[in-house]
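Next comes one such specimen:
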Amino acid sequence: MARRARAFWIVEPGRGEIRPVSLPEPGAGEVLVRTVHSGISRGTESLVFNGRVPASQRATMRAPFQDGEFPGPVKYGYLSVGVVERAPDDGTDGLVGRTVFCLHPHQTAYVVPASAVVPVPDGVPAARAVLAGAVETALNALWDIPPLLGDRITVVGAGLVGCCVARLAARVPGVQVMVLDVDPSRAEVASALGVGFAAPDVSPGRSDLVVHTSATPAGLRRSLELVEPEGTVLDLSWYGDQEVALPLGEAFHSGRLTLRGSQVGSVAPARRGSRSHRDRLTLALDLLHDPAFDALLTGSSPFDELPAVLARIASGGLPGLCHVVEYPDTDTHGED
């Protein structure tokens, strides 16, 4: 008999609701996962919630287990951690009882191929594991432009991905990392990550690499000002339907600067021949043994409150970094 679960849907731009869903029994090569935590990818999910995915990017921006279509109704999200509760006796049953990460929307339980879940390593708390998607994005970016020993790196934008980039880069010997952000409260987070902090109008000096993650035109313009001649600005921001104007008539050409995009949908070319998407995600989860990442978990709320919470996040009324959604275990045992 089908099991009951509940899922969060964006019904239309600016409005979400929780809907019931029936789950099949897991078939060959599948597992049933009961969700314990999910994370809100604040920048991307805010754009999706507000209906700001450009028509040209709707296919590219589909989440792995998305239902519906942009701008809505759509079930979206990709930072889910749960416990495998059931699997057929076909080799996947060894996952039963394991805590796993899956790129699945916000839903109390789900059935997916066993290949779609990655076990969370022992010693990594389940709540911290929701950061795996952000750490994977940062890891891929640093595969795109690897820091060299002793580099000076500036990260413009102390959001979730920017902070993950800063922490990983700071672990390279001799590398000095400075984070710039308009929010002075992010100084405390930067300190916990072991990196410097300054306001955007403070000059930290020229950097060998500038990573831009603020998703604002002003942040990208500032990034071009901060990079050394012949240096690279790596842009991880996604602007949705926002147009970005840049002062390319200034030092961009004379300084022989490089502006490069990075996106997690594909493994960085430098490692594409030797690492799969699963290899990259497995490494990201292993990097989360680092307790410094707990500084990025800045709020939590029950699953039932998700429609109101995501509306507040998308409107800017609920600041923070990674907001964790907590799930009850009462939705996964009933049957239709």
The chain is about 25% helix and 30% strand. The CA atoms of residues 76 and 92 lie 26 Å apart.
